Amino acid sequence: MKEAGKPSSDTLGPNSDRRRVLKFIGSSAAAFGLISITQVPLARARNMSNGADNFYTSDLVTKEKVTFKDQYQMRVVGNLFIPGNRERGGALPAIVVGHPMGAVKEQSANLYATKMAEQGFAALSIDLPFWGESEGQPRNAVSPDLYSEAFSAAVDFLGTHKSVDRERIGAIGICGSGSFVISAAKIDPRMKAIATVSMYNMGAANRNALNHSQTLEQRSEIIAAAAQQRYVEFTGGKMEYTSGTVHELTEDTHPIQREFYDFYRTPRGEFTPEGSSPELTTHPTLTSNMKFMNFYPFKDIETISPRPMLFVSGDRAHSKEFSEDAYRRAAEPKELVWIPGAGHVDLYDRVDLIPWEKITAFFRKSLS
Q1: Residue-wise pLDDT tens digits, 88-112
Q2: DSSP letter at 43?
Q3: Cβ atoms of residues 260 and 269 within 8 Å
Q4: Is 365 helix (H, G, I), strand (E, B) or coil?
Q5: What is the longest distance spanned by two Cα atoms in the chain?
Q6: DSSP labels for 169-201?
Q7: How far apart, in Å, are the Cα atoms of 353 and each of 31, 52, 133, 345, 350?
Q8: Residue 333 phi/psi, 5° resolution?
Q9: E-strand spans in 198-299?
Q10: How many whole angstroms separate alpha carbon 263 and alpha carbon 196?
Q11: Contact assessment for residue 87 and residue 99, using Cβ atoms and an 8 Å cutoff
Q12: How far is the C-alpha of 296 from the C-alpha of 274, rounded, in Å?
């Protein structure tokens, strides 16, 4: 196995046919496209319009790094935000916040947690297993079950915290975490209210790509190529990475890739956790990414009822199909909110577009 932080000179292998096959993987995951993570230019351009403020901080809340174990005794790390002006002795409603797929808590999740703490909630942003400061090897591995478990472990932590009312705990999942929190909530009724923002169904995205543009034959080729790669890595060969966000823009770069690049590869949202490298951020391991092919978070979503669900998406988001599908399948009470003019990544950090009042009202009513 190669050293972490030092990807191979050819992350998709020397065989041109294999490149063609693995290209489908990138097109169906978070950043959509064949990646090269060998040359990383300095981030220069950034689009900070519409109030983009990923690294927002607030004097109105306190922040504490916390660590706790999940059911499998893996360490989960998070940031707990507490309102600074709360009344002494009063137990607070609480919210768990999960970051986008391939991101870490410092990207979008901290922002949402800070804003919700300003509104009177105890808010906990977490790093999913294998990402950021949370435990798990190899780094950047995909495990939908452990991702979902992290949300329940966060409820364990909050429900035993002296400042929190365990009967009033909700959750927010951003991008891929929207599907992970739905998966968790189906079997954890302690989550009393669920909100998703710019949700990705990571199972459907990998099986079908956007708008069901990937054929079954293409899917089978992807799975077969990844299965063969397991032999390579089992016998000590180089670990491969896939999808994620491109590291440079060209004339041919797809608009969706440009959208992610503007957040993950510029000062707007770029963040490299300790122990990782800019070459590896956002990129899941190739072989583990196949776990998404067997991930069906919307199956039985109606069993979350009567707990309320809120789905928030930009009306221009390339991911809007997933919020529409979840809303259609979910039982009442449920609500789908469209943000006019917003794309997928806009709702990660553009504070002038994110519907804070709507999200706050939803949780105040649901966790009252």
Answers
A1: 668 999 999 999 999 999 999 999 9
A2: P
A3: no
A4: helix
A5: 65
A6: EEEEEETTHHHHHHHHHTT-TTEEEEEEES---
A7: 22, 9, 29, 11, 6
A8: -80, 140
A9: none
A10: 19
A11: no
A12: 32
- Strand spans (E) along the chain: 61-69, 75-83, 92-98, 122-126, 164-174, 191-197, 309-314, 334-339
What sign has the CA pseudo-torsion 358, 362, 204, 293? positive
Amino acid at 199: M
State both tokens at 11. Answer: 């992350």
Token couple for 334? 């449920």
Rounded Cα distance, 126 and 129, in Å: 9
Percent of the chain with pLDDT over 70: 86
> How far apart are the C-alpha atoms of 19 and 13, rounded to whole Å?
7
pTM of the model: 0.89
d(CA 35, CA 12): 8
Angle 14-260-339 (CA atoms, 0-180°, nearest 5)? 150
